[in-house]
Every structure is written in C-alpha cells, then in structure tokens.
C-alpha cells in the first residue's frame, strides 16, 4: 500500500458503518533495517484523531479500509519513537546508496509480511538535481527498495512540506490547525511556512496562542506582517497583544496603513470588553442598498456564518467608524423579500447596540436574550464601530486551553478498551 494514496481513505467496521478517514500511518524508523508500520491515524467524527493498530485492519480494498469493530477512541498522542509518514517522511531528503546523490521522498510503500507485521519495503523518490550550482528538485522519479536509501531516520535541516499539504488540502482550517498542533516544533514551522498567506492566516486563528506566537516570531518580519493583514482584525490584534511591544510595533509599521489602523483601534480596548472582542469588518451597507446587492455581500467567502447572518445598516461613511447606526437586517428576512426592494424598508431597529466598553457578560447576555449570532458595537455618537460575533464570545468564555482539552467520548462513540493493542493505556 502506498501511504500517500491511502491518506483520506474511509475506514469501515465489519458491519459497513463508517468509522472515519485515514490521515496518516505510524512507523517505527530505525537506523538499521526496514521501518515497521504499526498503525493508522484515523480521524473520527468530532475532529478526533485516534490510533488503529494495523493488526486490526482486516482488508484494504477498492478505496476502503476494513477494521475490526472495536476502536480505542482515546486521542492519538505520538510517542518519541514513532514517525508519521505523511506528517514527517514525505518531502524528506535521503541519500541514495549507489552514491548518485540525494532524493526527496514522495511516497512510501508498506507491505504485509508472512509474520503478520507490516514493513516499509519501497520508497518512491524524486532525484535531486544540481544544475549550474543551483539545487533543483524536479529530477527523475524512481521506486527504490528501502535498503537503497540512507538517512531516512534523520530529518534534513530544511525539509519541504508540499506533499504533506497536498494530502491535507481538503481539511478545514480548524482541522489543519489540529494537525499542526500535534507536530513537533520544527516540523510545525516548516509546514506553516509552506502555507500561503491566506491559508496560514485562517489556520493561525484556530491555533492555541503559544503556537501562534511561536510561528509568527519564527517568520521574517515582512512575511509575518503580510499574514497579519490576511487575518481578521480582531484575531490579529489578539495575536499582537501576545508579542513583546517592540515587535508588535514593528509589525504594525510594516502592515498596510488601512489594515494597521483597524488593528491599532482594537488594541486600545480591554480584552474582555465589546471593543476588545469585536471585528471591524462586518457587512455594513447603506439603507438604499437593494436586497439583491445585500445578498451578494453576505455570500463573501471570507465571512464567518455568524457575521453573514446580519447586515448592519448605517449612514455614510460605511467604513468603521461609520455614520449614524440605523439598525440591522436579518439574513432570513432578506431571503423572504423581493430582490429589487431596499434594505432600508426592512431594517430591524429593535436590536440595541452595546458600547465599546461593555463587559463580556453584558455582550453574552444580549446575544442569548435575543438569539443573535452577532451584536453591533457603537460609540457615544451612535456610530458603528464593529460587531461582536458569537464565536468570538465563546472563544473568551471557554478555558484558555480549550483547543487542547480532550473531552471524554460521547454516548455514540464505540467503547474504549482499558488496554490498546500496543499493550499500554494511552494518556
């Protein structure tokens, strides 16, 4: 089985119920001898990644993996002796035994032996070429036996991440953030650096603060400033607030003036207030805007579902801080009205905005009382400053380490045995 092709394959139990999807293969790499594959990392519902021993895989056929019915639902935690093929071996540089140079690992084949164990038997590599003193990766591809490569057990000084990211292309930012969080520090930085600015910005917003700071501080300042510009202003402000003041000031100077202006405004507010929680980029339109145009605005891909649920109506100027705030229009109301009408005719003026210094609990109470997904924030002249969305409120209400907390499996998960197939309880 080639691991890169196996990644993403659905896993089923003997009754045909889907358990999850393969995300990686765990191998034990040794300095001598072929690496032994010991299990699969399977993503099950709830974004949990669990370990399924290969001894419990009964068949791999027609794009599916069949396992025994009993799966340990405890979250997978990588041990020091373990290596993830997709996460760590793909893109690794190895030496060829024949002395012809180096190559980059593009796939790894594992094979079932008569003993019942799975071993890495072959490696699909791309030869590294040197032309005119320049290093070129796009050389000849070869499928070579495992004993024809050296240094597989040692990571190169600068390992790429193109193939790994290709395997995780379908993941949502929050899921990719989980993958990065579980990686070692060096590999996490390599993968983060390989992401484009927009994708990295989305992933950073989902990572714990320690990981965010470590990744940003490891980047060149100009790249870090570009990534901050791509983030939501409130998330960028939160991240800059975790950095030393001199570095934060330097990054703000490197950002585009308009982007930096919004972030500076947010940094002036206390963390647990409406001003500290809000984003300065909700959907803001004038009352003369047609319903059809308003619907086009809420279709923007960069909007969260919470911010897309409301259109904020204000007098010009329409960039925060706006002219006088009028009210909101709910997405459901937009869908019920003829497209040629104006939003000023259906505006809801009963939603009371909050002041920028309103405490977190006041914001939470207003959202809960009126069943809202977002709440307007205004100044003392009733100019719209921004909006607080329910996801930002939840982020501040939950414990600081909520992204890292492993909750107990719910009532619909399979039972967790006291001992895994590897002989000891995880955790």
TrEMBL record:
Instruction: Tell me the leader sequence span.
Output: none
Which keywords appear in this protein's UniProt record, sorted alphabetically?
CBS domain
User: What are the boundaries of the region Disordered?
Assistant: 402-427
Q: Which residues form the CBS domain?
A: 347-408
Asked if the Swiss-Prot or TrEMBL record annotates the protein with the keyword Glycosyltransferase, the reply is: no
InterPro entries the record matches: CBS_dom (IPR000644), CBS_dom_sf (IPR046342), Mg_transptr_MgtE_intracell_dom (IPR006668), MgtE_N_sf (IPR038076), MgtE_transporter (IPR006669), PRC_barrel-like_sf (IPR011033), SH3_actinomycetes (IPR058838)
Concerning PROSITE patterns, the annotation shows:
CBS
- PANTHER family associated with the record: MAGNESIUM TRANSPORTER MGTE
Name of the protein in its database record: Magnesium transporter
Please give the organism.
Answer: Cellulomonas oligotrophica
Upper classification of the source organism reads: Bacteria, Bacillati, Actinomycetota, Actinomycetes, Micrococcales
């Amino acid at each position: 089985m080639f691991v890169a092709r196996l990644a993403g394959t659905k896993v089923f139990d003997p009754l045909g119920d889907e358990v999850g999807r393969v995300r990686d293969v765990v191998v034990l790499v040794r300095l001598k001898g072929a690496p032994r594959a010991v299990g699969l990392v399977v993503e099950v519902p709830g974004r949990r990644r669990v370990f399924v021993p290969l001894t419990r895989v009964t068949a791999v056929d027609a794009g599916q993996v069949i396992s025994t019915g009993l799966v340990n639902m405890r979250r997978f935690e990588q041990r020091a002796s373990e290596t993830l093929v997709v996460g760590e071996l793909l893109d690794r540089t190895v030496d060829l035994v024949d002395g012809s140079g180096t190559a980059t690992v593009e796939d790894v084949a594992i094979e079932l032996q008569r003993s019942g164990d799975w071993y890495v038997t072959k490696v699909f590599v791309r030869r590294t070429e040197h032309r005119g003193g320049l290093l070129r990766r796009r050389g000849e591809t070869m499928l070579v036996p495992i004993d024809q490569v050296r240094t597989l057990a040692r990571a190169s000084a600068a390992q790429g991440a193109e193939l790994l990211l290709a395997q995780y292309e379908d993941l949502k930012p929050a899921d990719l953030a989980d993958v990065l969080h579980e990686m070692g520090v060096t590999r996490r930085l390599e993968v983060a650096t390989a992401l484009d600015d927009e994708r990295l910005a989305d992933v950073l917003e989902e990572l714990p603060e320690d990981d965010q700071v470590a990744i940003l501080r490891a980047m060149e300042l100009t790249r870090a400033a570009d990534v901050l510009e791509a983030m939501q202003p409130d998330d960028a402000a939160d991240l800059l607030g975790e950095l030393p003041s001199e570095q934060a000031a330097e990054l703000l100077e490197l950002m585009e003036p308009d982007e930096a202006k919004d972030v500076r405004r947010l940094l002036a507010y206390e963390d647990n207030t409406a001003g500290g929680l809000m984003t300065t980029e909700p959907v803001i339109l004038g009352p003369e805007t047609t319903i059809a145009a308003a619907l086009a605005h809420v279709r923007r891909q960069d909007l969260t579902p919470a911010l897309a649920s409301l259109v904020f109506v204000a007098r010009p100027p329409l960039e925060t801080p706006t002219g006088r705030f009028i009210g909101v229009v709910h997405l459901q109301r937009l869908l019920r009205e003829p497209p040629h009408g104006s939003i000023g005719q259906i505006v809801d003026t009963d939603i009371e905005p909050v002041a920028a210094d309103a405490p977190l609990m006041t914001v939470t109470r207003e959202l809960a009382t009126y069943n809202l997904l977002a709440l307007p924030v205004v100044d003392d002249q009733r100019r719209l400053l921004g909006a607080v969305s329910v996801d930002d409120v939840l982020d501040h209400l939950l414990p600081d380490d909520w992204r890292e907390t492993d909750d107990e499996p719910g009532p619909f998960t399979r039972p967790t045995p006291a001992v895994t197939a590897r002989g000891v309880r995880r955790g």
